[in-house]
């Protein structure tokens, strides 16, 4: 590895940390919707795979560090994974401890990263000897994964019932494209379908706004007033080991270890489950809330990193909700990557280690410092100056462009159709993990149905 490549990796990590420090603060942004399209564009641009991976690791760590800010200061989740922490953050806010909440969550993210990186690398290497066996059964494993994640949904029976119809929709569109000659027969239109699922809720909302009755029935709000209490700024580089208590450190590290090992499970589900278990015995409401958010933040970071690195290094197929979501383009981004030729086959073990260490270290060094020192100023700036709709509009336009590039105008309509269905399923409580698993297993499901 030469110095020029290392410099490019550092530059990519700095750029990712800068971008996603801001994106993470934006209320209601989803990690899949904001990271996946950008990573896909970088892969398709022909950028060196190791640079793309460095960018991705830095983006994930930075995004998870800053999505705690709007939760702490305004009770609004920055991302989907920050939602389980809202209740506990609001409790601390009522006691005037918003600054404590930010420090605890950011420090928990750092602990989760520090635990997940070595555990993921070790576990991935341990799985390499049996990787061929796992990959041989990849297609049925995707289906089993869809069933497993469906059982973890709130509306589990609805989620189970939707698997086969959704698979038929996806594979049916592919056969339609082959029949009309939009793409050569056998071409697997994947990227745009994946992005259609990713922004499904956005597509559904946009279509609903075209319905006059629905539009007129929507509740109108005046400008929202958000109060941000001023807090003392710390001096020097903050130390997460001093910010967290010994109990919070221990529980956070244990949660991160469990989250790394159970990387195939739903990050949201395991975060809520373990976070509540670890804090249940603490009676004092302030201590309980602080312990819960520290554990949850550590756990979410761990599941994100492990869910990417373990399948990527050991298998080369995306067998985790994280690998199927934000990290999907690292596994499958035709024509650059496929399940038979992706980063797993291109990068060496050393490349994975260096990309992970550089990306995570730079994101922690930049974003953790900024989060602790300037969280309130960043939050106020984003709330005032960066409309949520502008970000969603940018990602929506990227999806439409890539849909056209995949299979022409007919695919734009097909992706809108998939987005509508995916948005309805998401609104009904069927999470992205189930839908992405169905996307991967659709050809296998159809082959079993028709024999």
Automatic annotation (TrEMBL):
Keywords: Membrane, Transmembrane, Transmembrane helix. The keyword Transmembrane helix applies. It holds the Pfam family TctA. Residues 11-431 form the DUF112 domain. The keyword Nucleotide-binding does not apply. InterPro entries: DUF112_TM (IPR002823). The chain crosses the membrane at residues 6-26, 38-62, 68-90, 110-131, 137-153, 158-177, 189-210, 249-274, 352-372, 392-422. This is Tripartite tricarboxylate transporter permease. It comes from Cytobacillus mangrovibacter.
């Amino acid at each position: 590895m030469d110095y020029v490549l290392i410099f490019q990796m550092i530059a990519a990590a700095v750029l990712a940390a800068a971008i996603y420090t801001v994106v993470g603060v934006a209320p209601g942004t989803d990690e899949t919707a904001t990271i996946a399209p950008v990573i896909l564009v970088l892969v398709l641009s022909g950028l060196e795979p190791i640079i793309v991976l460095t960018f991705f690791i830095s983006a994930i760590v930075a995004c998870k560090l800053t999505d705690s800010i709007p939760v702490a200061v305004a009770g609004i989740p920055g991302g989907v994974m920050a939602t389980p922490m809202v209740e506990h953050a609001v409790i601390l806010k009522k006691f005037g401890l918003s600054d404590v909440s930010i420090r605890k969550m950011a420090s928990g993210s750092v602990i989760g990263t520090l635990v997940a990186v070595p555990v993921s690398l070790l576990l991935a290497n341990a799985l390499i000897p049996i990787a061929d066996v796992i990959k041989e059964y990849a297609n049925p494993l995707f289906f089993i994964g869809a069933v497993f994640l469906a059982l973890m949904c709130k509306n589990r029976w609805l989620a189970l019932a939707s698997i086969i119809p959704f698979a038929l929709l996806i594979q049916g569109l592919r056969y339609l494209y082959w029949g009309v000659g939009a793409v050569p027969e056998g071409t697997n239109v994947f990227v745009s379908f994946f992005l259609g699922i990713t922004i499904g809720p956005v597509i559904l909302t946009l279509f609903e706004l075209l319905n006059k009755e629905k539009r007129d029935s929507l509740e109108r709000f005046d400008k929202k007033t958000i109060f941000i209490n001023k807090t003392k700024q710390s001096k020097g580089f903050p130390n997460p080991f001093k910010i967290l208590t010994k109990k919070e450190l221990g529980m956070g590290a244990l949660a991160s270890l469990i989250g790394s090992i159970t990387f195939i499970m739903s990050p949201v589900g395991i975060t809520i489950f373990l976070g509540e278990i670890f804090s249940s015995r603490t009676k004092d409401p302030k201590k309980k809330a602080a312990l819960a958010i520290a554990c949850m933040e550590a756990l979410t970071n761990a599941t994100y990193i492990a869910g990417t690195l373990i399948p990527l290094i050991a298998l080369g197929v995306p067998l985790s909700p994280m690998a199927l979501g934000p990290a999907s383009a690292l596994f499958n981004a035709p024509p650059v990557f496929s399940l038979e030729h992706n980063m797993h086959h291109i990068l060496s073990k050393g490349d994975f280690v260096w990309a992970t260490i550089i990306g995570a270290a730079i994101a922690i060094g930049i974003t953790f410092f900024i989060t602790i020192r300037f969280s309130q100023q960043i939050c106020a700036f984003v709330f005032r100056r960066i409309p949520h709709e502008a970000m969603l509009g940018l990602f929506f336009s990227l999806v439409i462009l890539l849909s056209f590039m995949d299979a022409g105008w007919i695919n734009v309509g097909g992706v809108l159709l998939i987005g509508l269905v995916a948005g309805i399923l998401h609104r009904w409580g069927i999470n992205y993990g189930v839908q992405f698993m169905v996307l991967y297993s659709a050809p296998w499901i159809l082959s079993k149905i028709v024999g």
